Amino acid sequence: MNTATTSTSKAPAKPAGDGLRFYGVWLVGIALLIVLPMIFSSGGSLTSFSLIGIAIVFALSYNILLGQTGLLSFGHAVHYGLGGFAACHMMNAVVSHGWPIPLPFIPLFGGLGGLAFAMIIGWVMTKRAGTVFAMISLGIGELVASSSLILRSVFGGEAGITTDRTALPKMFGWSFGPQLQVYYLIAFWLVLSAIAMYALTRTPLGRISNAVRDNPERVQFIGYDPHVVRYIAFCFAGFFAGVAGGLAAINFEIANSAYLGAIQSGLVLFSTFIGGTAYFFGPILGAILVTYLQLGLTSVTSVWQLYFGIIFIGIVMFSPGGIAGLLMMHRPLVRAGTLWTVIPSYLVAIVPTVALACGVILTIETVARYSGGDPINLFGIPFDAKSPVTWIAAAVLVVGGSFVARLTWRRIADAWDRAATVARDRGYLA
Amino acid sequence: MSAAIEVRAVEKRFGNVGIIRDLNLSVAKGERHAVIGPNGAGKSTTFNLISGHIKPTSGEVKLNGDVISGLRPFEINRRGLSRSFQVTNVFARMSVWENVRCAVLWATGHRYAFWKNVDSLPEVRERTAQILDDIHLTHRRDVPAGLLTYAEQRELEIGITIASGATVVMLDEPTAGMSHAETDRAVSLIRRLTEGKTLVIVEHDMSVVFGLADRISVLVYGHIIASGTPEEIRRDPKVKEAYLGEEAH
C-alpha cells in the first residue's frame, strides 16, 4: 500500500519558497501601484489608473458571487451605486456638520451602504441559486435603478447628488483636489479590499462557498445551510461593491442613476468573466482590460460595444476560463519544462490570426461607416468605406486569414497534446 | 436505550402514488443494518426520508430517540447522521483535500467563520489528513475530485460521509459499479471506518450484504416484508419468494 508510509497528522507539505513567492506577488503589485503614476504622470493616465482601480475592486467583489459561490447576478451595480450615493451623502453631511472625518474614510461608508442593502434584500434573493437568483437580481436591479429617478430627495433625480471632496477635513495635509492624490486614495483602498477579499477565500466560509458553488445539495449533508452561505457571501459582495461605488463617488464627485443601472451591472459581469472566475486574479485582469478598452476604443470607433460583444462571445466559446484560465493552463507545462515546445506554434499562428482580426475589424468598420462617417484609419492606413478595394481587402483578409489561421491553430493543438502528455507523464498534470 | 434509528409508520406519496407504505424500521445502536430489495422498491427513497432529503407524508422518524422527520438535511446532519449517495455526489471542482476538509469544518465547530484562516486550524488539518489516509487518497490530495477515477470517487464519497464523525452512517450502494477487487477493498474500508458506529447500508451485492450486516431488512414495493439476522432472512419464505428467488436461487 503506497499510502502506508505517509504520516497521518502531518501538515500539507509546502515548499519553503511558496510563502516568499506568495508575498512577493502582493509586494510587487503594491510597488507597481506606487510607481505607476511616476512613470505615466499625465492627467489622462492618472484618470485611467483611477478608473481601473475602482473597476478592479468592483470586479473582485462580483467574483465573490460568480466565481466563488456560483451566483450569477445581473444587478450587482445596485450595491455599487448605493455605495456611491451613501458616500456622497456622507461627504455632504461631514461638510455640513463639520464632523472630523477625512476623505480616506469615506469609502468605508460606501461599503456600509452596499452592505446595508445586501443585508435587507439578500435573505430573499439567496434562497435559491441558479436561474431564480439571476432573475431576481435582474428585477431588483431594474427596481432600484428606476426608483433612483423617482425618489428625488435621496437620489437627486436625473442630475444625481453632487459633492465636493476637497471640502472635507484634510489628512496628512492632502486636500485630494489633484487627481494624483485621489489615485493614491483609490490605490490604498484597492490594496486593502483585495487583501481582505483574498483572505476571505481562505476562511472556512470561503471554502464552503466553493462547495455551495459546486454542489449545494451535498453541502446540506455535511451540516451547512447553503442559503446562509449564499447570504453571507452576498453581503460581503455587497460591501465591497459599495466600497468601489464610494471610490467612484470620490473620483467623480457625483453619484447618479447611471451608477446603479443595467449597463454597469453588465460591465462588471463582462470584466469578471473575461478575466476568468476560477482564479482570484482573473477579475483583476478582466477589469484592467475592459476598462482600458472602454477608455481606448470609445475614442477610436463608434461601434466599440460591438467589439466588446465579439470579445465576450469569443471568450465564452473558446476559453470559458477567461484570460486567467488561459494563462494557468500553461502552468503544468512550465513546471514540466515542456512550454518551449509549444511556443513556436504560437509564433507561427500570430501572423494569420492577426490578419484575420484585421479583416474582421475592417469589415465591421466598413459596414459601420458605409452610410456616412469618418474615413477608416486602420493602424495608420486610410481606407474608403465605399471603395470596392476596401471590401476586397477585407474579404481576402477574413477568408485567407481564417483558412491559414485554422491550419496553424491545429498545429498548436498538436503541439499542446504532445507537451501535455509529457507533463502528465512527469506528474504535473492530472 | 432508544434505537439509533426508529422509523414508525412512515408513508410517502407523490400525488396519488404511494412510494412508501407503512414503513417500520428499527436499527439498534452499533448495529450494521442492510436494506435490500428489488429495483424500484424504494430503498433510496427510504434513505431520503430518513436523512431529510424529502419529508414523509405521514409517520415519524427518530434519531437516538428524538423526532427528526420534518427537519432540514443539515439539521439532521448536525445531530449526528451522515449519508452518502448512490450517484457520486462530490464537489467536482475542488481538490480531494478540500472536499474532505469541507466535510470536517462544521463538526469541528468552525461553521460560517470568516475570520479564521482555514489553513491554520490544526484539528481540521489533522482530521482531514487522517481521513484521506483512511480512504487511501493521500497521494491524490491535490487532484480535483471531478478528475478521480470512478472507484476513487466512491471512496471519496465515503470519506466525505464519515468526515464529520457522525455516529449514524448511511451508505447508499457504496460498491455499485465496482469490480470485484475494488468491492473487496471498499467493504474492508467500510468495515474499518464504521467500527463502533451505527451503519445502514443499501446494497445489491449479496456477498457484501451477508458478509457485512448484523441485520437485514427486505424492502418490497415500499414496505418492509422481513427484518432479521442474515440467517433468518436467508430462510424466510416471503423473502425467497419476493426477492432472493429472482437472483440467488
Regarding quaternary structure, what we see is heterodimer
Low-confidence stretches of chain B: none
Mean pLDDT of chain A: 91
Rough outline of chain A? globular
Report the sheet-strand fraction of chain B.
15-25%
Series of H and E elements of chain A? HHHHHHEHHHHEHHHHHHEEH
**Number of DSSP helices of chain A?**
17
Tell me the strand order in the biggest sheet of chain A: 1-2
Strand tally of chain B: 10
Largest β sheet strand count, sense and barrel closure of chain A: 2 strands, antiparallel
SSE order of chain B, one letter for each helix or strand? EEEHEEHEHHHEHEHEEHH
- Rg from Cα of chain A: 24 Å
Radius of gyration of chain B: 18 Å
Structural class of chain A: mainly alpha
Secondary-structure-derived class of chain B: alpha/beta
Pair of chains with the largest interface and how many residues each contributes: A-B, 38 and 52 residues
Q: Portion of residues in helices of chain B?
A: 25-40%
User: What strand line-up does the widest sheet of chain B have?
Assistant: 6-7-8-3-9-10
Tell me the number of strands of chain A: 4
- Helicity of chain A, in percent? over 70%
